[in-house]
Design a protein that fits this description.
Layout: E1 13-20, H1 24-35, E2 40-43, H2 52-55, H3 76-81, H4 91-104, E3 111-112, E4 117-123, E5 128-133, E6 138-146, E7 168-171, E8 186-190, H5 194-204, E9 209-214, E10 220-222, H6 230-238, H7 240-250, H8 268-281, H9 297-314, H10 318-324, E11 336-338, E12 350-354, E13 360-364, E14 367-370, E15 374-376, E16 379-382, H11 391-394, E17 397-399, H12 406-409, E18 428-430, H13 443-464, E19 469-471, H14 473-487, H15 517-529, E20 535-537
Parallel strand pairs: 1-2, 1-6, 2-3, 4-17, 6-18, 7-16, 8-9, 8-16, 9-12, 10-11
Antiparallel strand pairs: 4-5, 5-6, 13-14, 14-15, 19-20
Helix pairs in contact: 1-13, 9-10, 13-15
The structure holds 3-acetylpyridine adenine dinucleotide (N01).
């Protein structure tokens, strides 16, 4: 590619903003920034928009936050007119919603599909980014918005013999667009996180035999999914603004009745009555049971025991039930939300392999061999998760001031200010990056809050004639310390979760998400009110 005198590729176009990714964050970024009069280009690797809901098409995929909350609120007509069919929308409906938003706001002309951003290099002399794609595009951008998703970079474990498997192999996060039929087949699933737990009951209903390879059991609460009663929809839509405000105050559920009293101030019978009501209500509402659930290990144990009791009631074979009982603190990994998960193990065509007792030795051409013996398989599903929060960014060639690679800047763990901006990488914004509430909040409002903040900031810079914004290193250090201090007194950092990067061999163990949506929003607003405190503007 021809280069200019500074060694940067000659470019074919200049955009005020390049947005990387066409998921919910990318779509709203485009709408917001274009509305401010910016010339924007979105690059999306897939052949459609929708991000998470484009890639995760595995059977049973659905959202674990109620649809009426897991939706955009920036446009009143949109939130009034869109009809969700179920309490927890299935993947197909969320994908239809993303496409509807792209149609409704005429976003398509500025979205380039089938295009992966390969590199972004900051030009210090001009205060612009040089962006290149795998399709040969070479453009410049005033700002780059990384709408790359927290859970988009798949984790495909390096199990010996993996590539020798002769059957069909799938990863839940890269599911094919064509319908996959498991009828009459011997299927294996490795992984029992949210994805595994959602897909296992559905695949068990199709396959001749399903073998689940479980390394760590997880807590799961029933979704009690179904159509949303008309009166509920009417009620929410009549007071959507208050409903959203309540959601923002609690981060995960507007109508969960978060209790402010503690588990340990109640008798066992009272505690169990509360847990039972949460179990009946379903989903992530369990988090709202008592105020000390995530801070007092004793309180946490009582809730964990309650769920273990449920597993022992549901699963008929006591040995299988014990294998399914988690031992880590409840909520230390995200609680899963399921439809018939534990009962699936009562089916005659389902078997569970405990990898802690009998680890996988290798994948062979005909299945999986553990230390105990061979399991013959026609299909193998990897429900093995993601290189979460950082993977999409560290796998990209992003070079900031002095040519520093983002991957190197984050070699000891991700560092940034407010989860939004990284020192040494001016004019680059991350949506829901590590250090922001992101995965510990409802992603849609979090995305909107970030995009609104970025829009407001870009507008401020333009009006004031600034060409450059960069996080100050000391503000960044303080923020990273604050994120860790906030998580430290909780049970969250106590197990090998992807929140800590512990699921990826060699990844630095750092607690990544920020706990607390409402204080986070207040902090972002305070930073602006104080003239972009912690940022260098030039
Ligand atoms: O991934 P995970 P996920 N050998 O990392 C196992 C969101 N989400 O895709 O725990 C054997 O949670 C691993 O075992 P271990 C949600 O935020 C939401 O399921 O590391 N096993 C674990 O069991 C969620 O938290 C929804 O010991 C291996 C599993 O694979 C996040 O995405 C639906 C292994 C991975 O679980 C990620 O969920 C789906 C190996 N080498 C996802 N490597 C909803 O909205 C990994 N595992 C409902």
């Amino acid at each position: 590619m021809p280069q200019d005198s500074a060694g940067f590729p000659q470019t074919s176009a200049h955009y005020d903003a390049v947005v990387v990714g066409g998921g919910f964050a990318g779509l709203y970024s485009l709408h917001k920034l274009r509305g401010l009069g910016l010339k924007v280009r979105v690059y999306e690797a897939g052949d459609g928009v929708g991000g998470t809901w484009y890639w995760n098409r595995y059977p049973g995929a659905r959202v674990d936050i109620q649809s009426l909350e897991y939706s955009y609120q920036f446009d009143e007509d949109l939130q009034q007119q869109w009809e969700w069919s179920e309490r927890y929308a299935p993947q197909s409906e969320l994908l239809a919603y993303a496409n509807h938003v792209a149609d409704r706001f005429n976003l398509w002309p500025d979205i380039q599909l089938n295009t992966r951003v390969a590199s972004a290099r900051f030009d210090e002399a001009a205060d612009i980014w040089h962006v290149r794609t795998d399709q040969g595009d070479a453009v410049t951008a005033g700002v780059v918005v990384m709408a790359t998703g927290c859970l988009s970079s798949t984790n495909i474990p390096d199990i010996p013999g993996r590539d020798s498997f002769q059957g069909r192999m799938f990863h839940t996060g890269r599911w094919p667009k064509e319908q996959v039929d498991f009828t009459g087949r011997r299927v294996g699933v490795i992984g029992t996180g949210s994805s595994g737990i959602q897909t296992i009951p559905v695949i068990a209903g199709q396959a001749a035999h399903l073998t689940v390879f479980q390394r760590t059991p997880n807590y799961s609460a029933p979704a009690h999914n179904g159509p949303i009663p008309e009166d509920v929809v009417k009620n929410v839509k009549a007071r959507y603004a208050q409903y959203r405000a309540a959601n923002n105050a609690t981060a995960l559920g507007a109508d969960w009745d978060y209790r402010t009293d503690t588990a340990m101030e109640h008798s066992e019978a009272e505690r169990n009555a509360e847990y039972e009501s949460r179990w009946r209500r379903g989903g992530l509402s369990f988090y709202g049971s008592f105020a000390d659930l995530l801070t007092d290990p004793e309180a946490n144990f009582t809730a964990a025991e309650f769920i273990r009791g449920k597993i022992r009631q549901i699963v008929k074979d006591p040995a299988v039930a014990e294998m399914l009982c988690p031992t880590a603190a409840l909520g230390c990994k995200r609680i899963c939300v399921d439809t018939g998960y534990y009962a699936t193990y009562n089916r005659p065509n389902v078997s569970l392999v405990d990898l802690r007792a009998t680890p996988i030795a290798e994948i062979t051409p005909s299945g999986v061999r553990t230390s105990e013996g061979a399991h013959g398989l026609d299909d193998l599903i990897l429900a093995t998760g993601f290189d979460a929060m950082t993977g999409a960014l560290t796998r990209m060639d992003i070079r900031g001031v002095g040519g520093q690679l983002m991957k190197d800047a984050w070699a000891a763990g991700p560092k940034n200010y407010l989860g939004l901006c990284v020192a040494g990488f001016p004019n680059l914004f991350i949506i829901c990056g590590p250090g922001s509430p992101s995965v510990l909040s409802n992603m849609l409002p979090s995305i909107e809050q970030h995009v609104n903040w970025i829009g407001q900031t870009v507008d401020y810079l333009r009006r004031r004639g600034f060409r450059r914004i960069e996080a100050k290193p000391d503000a960044q250090e303080q923020w990273v310390a604050h994120v860790n201090e906030t998580a430290a007194p909780t049970i969250l950092p106590t197990c090998n979760s992807w929140y800590l990067g512990a699921n990826i061999p060699g990844k630095p163990r750092v607690f990544m998400p920020y706990l607390g949506f409402a204080p986070y929003v207040a902090k972002c607003e305070e930073v602006v009110a104080n003239g972009y405190e912690g940022f260098e503007l030039a």
